[in-house]
Amino acid sequence: MMGNIVLLFLIWSHGFFLVWGHGITTQPDAVKLTSKHKLKDLNQSVQFWVDSSNNATPENIKEFDQRFRAYTGVPKFNGKYENVWFRFTYTSFIDEKLFLWLNNRWLDHIEIFYVPHQQGGLILLEKTGHAELATALNNSTLRYLIQLPDASGPTTIYGKIKNDNISTPFWVPLKIGTYRTFIQTYQYSMVLSIGAIGIILAMLLYNAMLLITIRDKVYFYYIVYILSALIFVIYRTGYGNGFLKDALWRNSHWPVGIFFTCLLLFIINLFEVRQWNKWMLKLSYPVFFLCILFVLEIFPNSAIVYYLMSILVLGYILYCILYLIFKKSSLGTSSLVAWLPMLITGILYMFMVSGHFFNEFIETHSVELSICWQLIVFSLIIGNRYNALKEEKIQIQQRNLEIVENQNKVLEETVAQRTKIISDRNQELHIKQQKIRDQTKLLQNQNKELYESREIIAKHNKRLETEVAYRTAALSKSIQSLNKQYLQLEQFSYIAAHNLRAPVARILGLTSLFDKKSTSRDNIHIIGELANAASDLDGVIKDMGKIIEAQKISEIPKEEIEFKPFVKNIIERLISKQTQHIKWKINSNTDRITTIKPYLDNILTNIISNSIKYQSPIRKPWIDIQLRAKEEEHCIIVKDNGMGFDQKKLDSKLFVPFQRFNIDKPGKGLGLYLIKTHVEAMNGTVQIESQVNNGTKVTVQLPVNQLNN
User: What domain count does the chain have?
Assistant: First the structure.
């Protein structure tokens, strides 16, 4: 409905301006210039002729003088492929140079000739135009100023105009006067143009600062639109010709396409079209496409596309504004206030460009002033929109705070109710526990053993939640320890049986050979062997005692020791006269450590004694003992350069009791087993690295919180 109203309005306006025509008058008189302070309007004193066949030339134009006609008002022409000739005669009574002024900078090709006094041929004064190198386009008045020749009598001027765009009618407004008069007369026009550009720049800087502060996408699109408006106004006023290449502006309409494209982008985001009308958003896509094609200038007839683009964009924006007004949105009303001058200007300018009437002010300043008004109002609209959004945000925050407070109250009430329920349940539990205690006391009176068991159960129930995990881990660890002890016991039983069998067999054999009645040397030798066998048996039994003693779990208190004197005492205890040549050194990063002294003494005694026993016969032996104390553990490293052994072959037998790796050296094969047993008793680990003829390295890691296993 609203679109139909707009269409009817456009049709009515078009018909109204068609009725407003221009008639042809009789032969005009020559122009007489008597004052140098006034401009003379030539619209009533100039004759025009349309050369449809393009046969007229400067040489034969006088042959067509009878065809020239005068018009009322500013004449318009249809803009076909034809030359428009005009002529007028003037007589100057002033002593300053005169200029011809063409108040339409969109004329593509202009040639001005004059007829010298008492001569027949035409002489070219100026060749200029919008599509030419416009040497006569004056930057002060932004119109074509052509200096006329000095003449003491009547002088006739001929002009030829041709436009390249065949579909756009054009106007030919002409004036004559002095240069100073032109500048003074059109100073207000220059001030308006420069002021409009200044207002646009001010709006650009103002909204750019707001964009940096607010960071709203609407401000971003608005700044892009202001930039396109600035380019469009510079393009329309012609100020870009002074500092940009002619090819960028002349005979080019891309600033118009950019202006409409950015305008459409801004309106869609300001009105939030995608939220309230998806159909209108989709309708904007072909309009965007048309604007982009206009920017690329791929249409041979840009005027028709310009009219179509103007109608679509302005109609689209008008529909959005009317829709918002219909929805009783304040944004629609304020946008209509901002857009009303632009809409009126657009309709008037469209009819003027299409040739229905001509108005100098509308042609020169209406668009730029409408844009300035629009930018100022829209800056206020967007600022008001930001304030509204800010207030809405504050209200939302207040509502959120109220919701949070209400939720907190509900939560507090819920917590209080839950606390009461828990308290009631705790009381019930206490009552039940009291009943259980009473029942337990009764049961204890009946049976003492049952009472003790119930006592244990009651204690375990209190600690059940905190000790289940610990008990499970302890049980698993106990099972592993029992399995390990079982394997060790089985292995120990086998080894003990094997090791006891040899001395017992020897004793039994020697006993059978012993002759109780004889006192010969053989009996004495047998008695000596019996003593040796008994000594071996005693050694085996002592070793078994050591193993059994190491398996016992007992609580031995920890104590603080000085590491270096402690190790030095062990070394001095082990080194004899035969081993005094062994070099040794002790390195430690701390003086004192807290440990289980008997266990550590046994560990270091067995390690150092092995280093002494299995020293290399081909090298000077040395023993290096290091202590690296850390926050969580102590690391003791004992290295030597002794005989070493093949670790790959013997790795699985390293810590098995009664395993001997060198039968040439005396021993029982219990040292490594006792080392590992005591290290594990302190929750530590032991590692052995060795190579044949390359020494051995023993690493013992003991946690700071050493506990008996």
Answer: 4
Helices marked H in 575-626: 597-613
Is the pTM value of this prediction over 0.70?
Answer: no
Residues 6+ away with beta carbon under 8 Å from 319: 2, 3, 6, 280
For the chain, the first-to-last Cα distance in angstroms comes to: 96
Element (H, E) at 392: helix 367-446
Q: Is residue 699 very low, low, confident or very high in pLDDT (cuts 50, 70, 90)?
A: very high
> 472-524: per-residue pLDDT in tens?
776 777 677 666 655 555 555 555 555 555 666 667 666 666 655 555 666 66
Q: Which residues contact 174 (CB under 8 A, 6 or more apart)?
A: 41, 42, 43, 46, 86, 88, 100, 101, 102, 103
Give the bridge partners for 127, in sequence order: 111
SS3 428: helix
Q: How far apart are CA 428 and CA 409, in angstroms?
A: 28
Please, what's the b/e burial string for 660-697 (b: 16 or more CB within 10 A of its CB; e: otherwise)? Answer: ebeeeeeebbbbbbbbbbbbbbbebebebebeeeebbb
Q: Are 182 and 139 in contact (CB under 8 A)?
A: no
Q: Looking at the structure, do residues 526 and 627 belong to the same domain, yes or no?
A: no
Please, which residues have CB within 8 angstroms of residue 629's CB and are 6 or more apart in sequence? 588, 589, 590, 593, 635
Q: Which two tokens stand for residue 510?
A: 């020697």
pLDDT digits (tens, 9 = 90+) for 61-91: 888 888 888 776 667 676 556 788 888 888 8
**Of 366, 382, 398, the domain-final residue:** 382
The answer to whether the CB of 278 falls within 8 A of the CB of 325 is no
Residue 600: CB atoms within 10 A of its CB come to 24
Residue 297 within any structural domain of the chain: yes
pLDDT tens per residue across span 539-553: 656 655 555 555 554
Question: Closest Cα to residue 263, out of 295, 238, 300, 305?
Answer: 295
More confident residue, 442 or 117: 442
> Which of 353, 382, 411 is where one domain is finished?
382
pLDDT at 637: 92
Q: Which of 43-47, 75-79, 534-538, 544-548 is least confident?
A: 544-548
User: Range of 356's domain?
Assistant: 199-382
